[in-house]
Description:
Number of domains: 1
Oligomer: single chain
Helix content: 40-55%
Order of helices and strands: EEHHH
Structural class: mainly alpha
Strand order of the largest sheet: 1-2
Amino acid sequence: MMHLFMRKGPWFRAKSHGFGTGLPMVWEGWFFIALHVAMITGLAAALLGRPVAMTIAVIVAGLAPMPIYRAKTEGGWRWR
């Protein structure tokens, strides 16, 4: 069932200037960004009273999906 959601092509456009991922071009990209934001928000809310743990968790959650963003960007990540 999961294979129906995993499109083989790119999910994100390459940035026209700079380095990294641009805006999504298919629904999987938008869904992945929504999950990423929800994950960071949920962790921040769950660890609200513990600022050091919250900071570490948010940084790790922010960086963890970067390999997927890079793999699913049209043309890969390079300086433009």
